[in-house]
Write a structure and sequence with these properties.
By secondary structure, this protein is of the alpha+beta class. It has 14 helices and 38 strands. Helices cover 26% and strands 34% of the residues. The strands form 11 sheets. Strands 13, 14, 18, 19 and 20 form a 5-stranded antiparallel β-sheet that branches. Helix 2 crosses helix 4.
C-alpha cells in the first residue's frame, strides 16, 4: 500500500537547496582560508568608533613607515655608515644632496641586504614612536567615550608574501558615556595590501643574478663596442697619415648618453613588463640562424628568417632573465641619470687625450711613405643603477615602489664584481649571556641637560658592545646626585653608553673609563609641522596643498644627530594635514629640504616646487614654540618641459624670488589663538 504525503516533493526540494548552499559555503570558506583571507563574520557587531579610529591610525602610521622604507631600500632610518658615506648611497633626486638617500645593496665586493626581520623591526619602532601623534590622546572622542589606557602600545609587524600584518598590543577600556557597560580591548589587528616579503625576494634575486651573471657590465661593454671607432675606440688599425686622437671627455659623454637611454629599456623576464612585438618562435628562429652561421666551419652569408620582429635587438640585448619564478604581479625598472655621475678612465691617455701609435712602413717596391695607426684602449668604468620594484595594486591600487641601488663596475674592459659572502643586516641582538657576566668594579653615570647643565633623572641607559646590547637601568637620586651606579658587562673595549629620555634626543657616547662618566643630552620641543605653498603669480598668498599634491620634508642636523623625514598629503580627511615632531630646544642650524610634488598619473609624480637651504633657529624661539609652518615656493604654471624642471630647482634655492617663503615659528599664545579662531569658524586646524 502506498501513502501519498502532500508537500513531500516540495520538502525534498528545500533540503536539496539547503544542501547546495551549505556545500557552496564550505567551498567559499575553504578557498578564503587557503588564500590567507579571513572570511567576514556576518554576525559580528559593528566595531565601535574608538576601535575604527585606532585601526585607521595603525594603518596610516604603518603606511607612512612602509613608504619611507620603500624609498630608502628597506631602511626607515639609514645607518650612519650608509647615510654619512656618499659612496654607499645615491640621491633620489639628482643634484639635491638632502633628498632621500637610496642605499647600495652591493658595496666593495659584498652584498649587504637588510633582512625581512630587520625591516619588520624598523616599522615596529616607527609605529611605537609615532602612533601617539595620530591618536592625539583621542581628542574629539572623549565627549562621547571615557577611554582608559591600561598599558602602553607595542607593535608587532609581519611581512607576508601577499600582505603586511600589524598587530598592536594595547590594553584600553572604552566606556560610552551614559551607558553602564564598558568594553576592554587588548589587541588590534590591521592588514595592509603590501607584498613586502615578495618584493624583498624579487629584489634579492635580481641582485644575486647580477652578481653571478654581470648582466649590466656585459650590456655596457656591448653597448660601447657597438659605437664606431671615431666615437668610442677599443682596438683597431688604420692606414692614415697623422696620429688619431680622441678626447676622453667626449668619449665619456657618448657613454653617458648611451647608458642613460639603454638602462630604462631593460625588461625583466617573468615580471610585468611591456610585451614584445613578436612571438617567442620568431626570436628563436633568429637566434638559431645566427648560431648556425657562427658555428659553421665553411664561410657562407648569414641568412635570416623573413619575419624578424622590429624589437629583436632589445629582445636579445636588453632582456634580463634572472629567475625561473613568476613575479608577473610586479613591475621592475632600472634607471640611470647622468646627474648621478660616472667614473670613466681610459688607458693609455695623456691628460685626457687618447692617442694612437704611428708606425712608418717603407716598401722596397713602393717609394711612397705609408702611415699605419694602431690603437688599443682599456676602460675602467663605474656608475650607479637604481632598481625600482612597483606593486600597482598596493595601498588600494594607488601603488607602492621599493627602491635600492648597486654600482656597475668594469675593470680593463671586463666585468669586475667580487663575490664575498652576502651580509644580511639583522636587528641588534640582545645577548643574555653577555649581559650576565659583569666587571667587579662599579661605575657611575651622570646625565645632564646640555642647555641648563641640570642633572636628569629617569634616563634609560643601554650598554652596547659591537652587536651585543644590554639594559643598564635608569638614573635616579642618591640624595646628592641624579645618577646611575652599577657594573658593566665584562670583556668589552670601546663600549657605547646610550642614553634615552622623553623630551631629549637619544645620545650615545663612547665610554672612556672616567668615573663619574658624564653624558650631555639635547632637550627637544614638540611642534606641529604644516605646509603652505606660494605660487609664482601670487607669492605673498599662503595656500594649503591641493588634493593631488603632497610634500616630502627632510630635515637634518649633524651634531647632535637628528633626521626627520615626513610625507604631507593634500586634501582633507579625518586626519588633519599636520604632523608633530621633536626639534632641538637650543640654538641650531638645520639642513632643510622640501619637495612639493603633484600627482599627474597613476604612478607618475611631477616636481612643482620646494625649498632647499639652511634653517637657523634660536633657543629663545624654541622655548614656547608650538607649530612650524613651512612656506614652499611653487612653479606656476606647473612645469611641462625639462627647462621648466630646471627652473623649479632655481626657485627652490632662490630666496629673492620668494622672500616670505621661510619657515615660520608659531608661539604658544599665537597657536592657541589660531586654534580657537579656527574652531569658531568651523575649520579643522592644521
Amino acid at each position: 500500500m502506498f501513502f501519498h504525503i502532500p508537500g513531500r516533493k516540495a520538502q525534498i526540494t528545500v533540503f536539496i537547496i539547503i544542501g547546495i548552499v551549505l556545500i557552496f559555503s564550505v567551498g567559499i570558506y575553504s578557498y578564503l582560508s587557503s588564500s590567507g583571507i579571513a572570511p567576514a563574520d556576518m554576525f559580528q557587531p559593528k566595531s565601535p568608533p574608538v576601535v575604527n579610529y585606532i585601526d585607521a591610525c595603525i594603518d596610516r602610521t604603518a603606511t607612512s613607515a612602509i613608504k619611507a622604507m620603500g624609498t630608502q631600500g628597506g631602511y626607515i632610518s639609514l645607518p650612519r655608515s650608509i647615510s654619512l658615506n656618499p659612496t654607499r648611497h645615491m640621491s633620489l633626486v639628482p643634484g639635491v644632496s638632502t633628498s632621500p638617500k637610496v642605499p647600495y645593496w652591493y658595496f666593495e665586493g659584498r652584498s649587504e641586504i637588510p633582512s625581512i626581520r630587520y625591516m619588520e623591526v624598523e616599522v615596529e619602532e616607527y609605529i611605537n614612536d609615532n602612533l601617539q601623534f595620530c591618536l592625539n590622546n583621542f581628542e574629539g572622542m572623549r565627549d562621547e567615550f571615557i577611554i582608559t589606557e591600561h598599558s602602553n602600545f607595542t607593535a608587532d609587524v609581519v611581512f607576508a608574501q601577499r600582505e603586511t600584518i600589524v598587530n598592536l598590543n594595547y590594553n584600553i577600556e572604552v566606556h560610552p558615556r551614559g551607558d553602564d557597560k564598558s568594553t576592554t580591548y587588548e589587541n588590534f589587528r590591521v592588514k595592509i595590501d603590501v607584498k613586502m616579503m615578495r618584493m624583498h625576494d624579487l629584489a634579492t634575486e635580481i641582485l644575486e643574478a647580477e652578481n653571478r651573471e654581470t648582466f649590466y657590465e656585459n650590456m655596457t661593454i656591448d653597448l660601447m663596442a657597438s659605437f664606431p671607432p671615431e666615437k668610442i675606440p677599443f682596438t683597431g688599425m688604420e692606414f692614415k697619415c697623422g696620429g688619431l686622437k680622441w678626447v676622453l671627455s667626449d668619449v665619456k659623454e657618448n657613454v653617458l648618453e648611451a647608458v642613460e637611454m639603454a638602462i630604462p629599456a631593460i625588461r625583466f623576464e617573468n615580471t610585468d613588463h611591456p610585451p614584445y612585438e613578436g612571438r617567442d618562435d620568431d626570436y628563436r628562429a633568429v637566434h638559431e640562424a645566427v648560431k648556425e652561421w657562427k658555428e659553421n666551419e665553411v664561410y657562407r652569408p648569414l641568412v635570416l628568417p623573413k619575419n624578424i620582429p622590429r624589437d629583436s635587438y632589445e629582445y636579445f640585448q636588453y632582456r634580463f632573465k634572472f629567475t625561473d619564478k613568476e613575479y608577473n604581479d610586479l613591475k621592475v625598472m632600472s634607471s640611470y641619470k647622468k646627474e648621478w655621475g660616472m667614473k670613466l678612465l681610459a688607458s693609455p691617455n695623456d691628460n685626457g687625450v687618447m692617442k694612437s701609435s704611428v708606425q712608418d712602413l717603407k716598401s722596397q717596391i713602393m717609394s711612397s711613405l705609408m702611415c699605419l695607426n694602431t690603437y688599443h684602449f682599456t676602460y675602467d668604468l663605474m656608475y650607479p643603477i637604481m632598481i625600482s620594484i612597483n606593486d600597482p595594486t598596493a595601498f588600494h591600487r594607488t601603488g607602492f615602489v621599493f627602491r635600492y641601488a648597486f654600482p656597475v663596475q668594469i675593470f680593463h674592459n671586463a666585468p669586475d664584481r667580487g663575490l664575498l659572502p652576502t651580509r644580511i643586516i639583522e636587528p641588534t641582538e640582545y645577548d643574555l649571556e653577555f649581559c650576565d657576566f659583569v666587571e667587579p668594579e662599579e661605575n657611575t653615570i651622570i646625565v645632564r641637560d646640555i642647555v641648563t647643565n641640570a642633572e636628569l633623572s629617569r634616563v634609560d641607559l643601554r650598554y652596547r658592545c659591537i652587536r651585543e646590547e644590554c639594559s643598564l637601568g635608569r638614573t635616579r637620586s642618591n640624595n646628592r646626585h641624579l645618577q646611575w651606579s652599577g657594573q658593566f658587562p665584562s670583556g668589552c673595549l670601546g663600549a657605547l653608553i646610550i642614553a634615552n629620555r622623553t623630551g631629549y634626543i637619544e645620545t650615545e657616547k663612547q665610554f672612556d673609563g672616567s668615573d663619574p662618566f658624564y653624558i650631555d643630552m639635547y632637550p627637544t620641543q614638540k611642534v606641529v609641522f604644516d605646509i603652505r605653498r606660494h605660487t609664482e603669480n601670487a607669492p605673498h598668498i599662503a595656500r594649503p596643498l591641493d588634493d593631488d599634491m603632497y610634500a616630502i620634508v627632510q630635515l637634518e642636523h649633524k651634531s647632535p644627530d637628528l633626521s626627520i623625514f615626513g610625507v604631507f598629503e593634500g586634501g582633507k580627511s579625518m586626519f588633519n594635514n599636520s604632523k608633530s615632531f621633536d626639534l632641538i630646544r637650543a640654538d641650531t642650524d638645520y639642513d632643510l629640504n622640501i619637495m612639493l610634488l603633484q600627482k599627474v598619473g597613476k604612478n607618475d609624480d611631477r616636481l612643482i616646487g620646494g625649498w632647499i637651504g639652511n634653517w637657523s633657529v634660536s633657543l629663545e624661539e624654541m622655548l614656547d614654540a608650538r607649530k612650524v609652518i613651512f612656506h614652499v615656493p611653487q612653479k606656476y604654471p606647473p612645469p611641462s618641459t625639462d627647462a621648466d624642471i630646471i627652473s623649479v630647482y632655481e626657485i627652490m634655492n632662490n630666496r629673492t624670488l620668494f622672500p616670505a617663503a621661510v619657515p615660520e615659528i608659531i608661539r604658544a599664545d599665537e597657536y592657541t589663538e589660531g586654534v580657537a579662531q579656527d574652531a569658531s569658524q568651523g575649520v579643522v586646524s592644521s
